[in-house]
Amino acid sequence: MCGFAGLLRASRGVDAAEAERLARNMVRRLRHRGPDDEGVWIEAEAGFAVGFRRLAVIDLSPAGHQPMRSPCGRYVLAYNGEIYNAPELRADLEREGVRFVGRSDTEVLLAHLARFGIDATLPRLVGMFAFAFFDRVLRELWLVRDRLGIKPLVYGQIGDQLLFASEIGALFAHPAFAPCVDREALALYLRFGYVPAPRSIYHGIHKLPPGHLLRVDRSGRATLERWWDLERVCEAAAEPAMFRNEDEALDAFEALLADAVAREMVADVPLGIFLSGGIDSSLVAALAARRAGEPVRTFTIGFDDPAFDERPHAREVARIIGAEHSERCLKVEDALAIVPRLAALFDEPFADASAIPTSLLCRRAREEVTVALSGDGGDELFAGYTRYADTQRILALRGRLPRFLRHWLPPLLERLAEARWAREAASALPPLGRLKPGDRIAKLCEVMDAPAERVMRAVIAHHARPSRLLAGISEPLEEPWRGGLAPQLGGLPERLQLADMLTYLPDDILTKVDRASMAVGLEVRVPILDHRVVEFVWRLPRELRQRDGKPKHLLRRLLARYLPERLFERRKHGFSVPMHRWLRGPLDGWIRELVTPGRLHDAGPFDPVFVRRLFDEHRSGRVDRRFELWNLLAYLAWFRFRIERPMLPAEEVASVSA
Fold first, then answer.
1. Per-residue DSSP letter, 646
2. Which of 376-385, 412-421, 624-633 is the least confident region?
3. Residue 127 and residue 85 in contact, taking contact as beta carbons nearer than 8 Å
4. 156 has which bridge partners?
5. Which one, of 357, 363, 299, 364, lies nearest residue 326 by Cα?
6. How many domains does the chain have?
7. What does the DSSP 8-state code read for residue 348?
């Protein structure tokens, strides 16, 4: 796992010395992603420069140094990630007469690209990756991101130069980059708690979407192409794979997931496993323990609040699989230390509060290991989130209303929305009481006559109407929320899961894990998101993914082969924190220092009366406003860190998890 940053000025060349200085300055802001080595490549006449920071995981020798040039001298590669089927690709290349200097997967990827090209190479890759590949003869640059968006890559046209990097923070080292908040992206952030790709919070800077590549020719013309399409995968799976019985499907799934785990355990450095005690991480840990020739290392974070603490479950799982287990309790004091520094972990405002325990977990694991396996992806693949059931309940409730009433109710509800008694009554209405806290009346208004995707968009919203907080802001309605997602897919649950896999998974879950882990130089791998596993699961009949309203049916059955059912047949916790309680006292000092009239004006301007009402309602206990408030606080903290003082030294950014 590594980081890279570079530039391309195709219209004219660059001064070699100046280009090297810029490339080094940019990539040194990514030192936390790659503490082991640094390199640069300059192609002055072609206007190309790229810098690289390496975290050595496979082949720790200098043979894995990057940027790497092909033996023929034509191609240059800067690559972040891991190719898990590199041994097979290497064997194929050796049969073609290719000879290798070292054992790194970087050398294998470069050799395959050089021999077969982009189009033939990408479908063969099993892994997580983002890379910049430059053809010195044609003077063409390819920026490529993996299928599911596990590894990040951003780019933007700044003047006559294309800048690109693993993290937006690297761009701050380029003098032409002037950070400016994109107001539409801000509106999307206020709703979701993250900025969905391809947008970023900065005007003119884009995230390369998962499964896409950007090709830039010698004239500087850029073409965005989709090389893997999750929506098409899901539609192709509308005709499920046929198995004679459930046990046959279970055996096939076990073999495939076990192979993914085994491949991702390969490393020349110590490896561990994140273990929450839930179904997904417990299954990954159990499969890894069976594969390993010695006790695996497992790591758990718990809380001093029993309602959020899963340490006893994780401890018991670790005992049964024979793991060498380590756990740590996240106390209020730890949160107080981490929260003010979270803004430095992320290039953009980010309001997933589970970044707090994730950061502490990564820091703890890095004390002993350099690579960790995670159970991320199970909820999206096997319908593990309550939002799917919540959405279906609302649709069922709405379906019982006459169409004329759906037309007349929204304006009436809008008039009631300002009444305190109405807001508090709406909070208690089933099934709305199970939704994420927020303005439920506004959510009702939004979904009265909307497609299913729009209903879930309202269910998961932090701020149901961003314009209430920030007057005059315009929120775009983009796919997958318009309602035209995968029309051939058919089933409602599948459409909702697909929407999450296209947005929430890459832009929240995987972003959180990448930034929290790479801040401490830890590589996290996600076996459940091996694309072969993803494609297999989508071909399964629905009743194998969820049955009788209970998600993760096949995962449960497989885990029962390794652990007693009593350990996982229980209420889902999720990796959450007692933020509702922290916002009513422990974080008061930080909040008072952060939420000032001047900052509310400069960062928005946000409506101070509305902000005060949100705080008052939450502190009084009348309405739980944790999501709205944490969303706003995370944005203000990011604004202070990235906009008010954007030239913070890279050393401070890299040490936020120290």
1. T
2. 412-421
3. yes
4. 163, 205
5. 299
6. 4
7. S
Distance CA 441, CA 199 (A): 29
User: In this structure, is residue 495 part of a structural domain?
Assistant: no
With respect to residue 573, please indicate whether it lies within any of the assigned structural domains.
no
Dump pLDDT digits (tens) for 554-612: 999 999 999 998 877 766 666 678 888 899 988 888 999 999 999 999 999 999 999 99
- Residues labelled as active-site residues: 2
pLDDT at position 572 is: 63
Residues 515, 474, single domain; the answer is no
Same domain, 623 and 542: no
Tokens of 217: 């020719």
Whether residue 572 lies inside any domain: the answer is no
- Is residue 554 within 8 Å of 544, Cβ to Cβ? yes
Please tell me whether residues 136 and 204 are part of one structural domain. yes
Range of the domain at 598: 579-654
- Taking residue 585's Cβ as centre, other Cβ atoms within 10 Å add up to 10
Contact (Cβ atoms closer than 8 angstroms) between residue 219 and residue 10? yes
Both ends of the chain: CA-CA distance in Å? 19
pLDDT digits (tens, 9 = 90+) for 6-46: 999 998 899 999 999 999 999 999 999 999 999 999 999 99
Question: What CA dihedral angle connects 235, 239, 243 and 245, to 10 degrees?
Answer: 100
What is d(CA 205, CA 473) in angstroms, rounded to the nearest whole number? 20
- Are residue 272 and residue 213 in the same domain, yes or no? no
CA dist 537 → 234, 237, 488, 533, 610 (Å): 10, 9, 17, 6, 45
Q: What is the pTM of this model?
A: 0.93
The amino acid that residue 415 corresponds to is R
Q: Are residues 239 and 224 in the same domain?
A: no
**pLDDT score for 400:** 74
Nearest to 574 by CA among 339, 276, 301: 276
Q: Angle 520-525-527 (CA atoms, 0-180°, nearest 5)?
A: 160
Which position has the token pair 């950007």?
214
Domain boundary among 514, 538, 567: 567
Task: Tell me, yes or no, whether 81 and 198 share the same domain.
Answer: yes
> pLDDT tens digit string along 469-482?
998 888 998 888 87
Looking at residue 304, the DSSP 8-state letter turns out to be S
Pair 17, 83 in one domain: yes
β-strands 546-547, 550-551 pairing: antiparallel
Q: Which residues sit opposite 330 in a β-bridge? A: 303
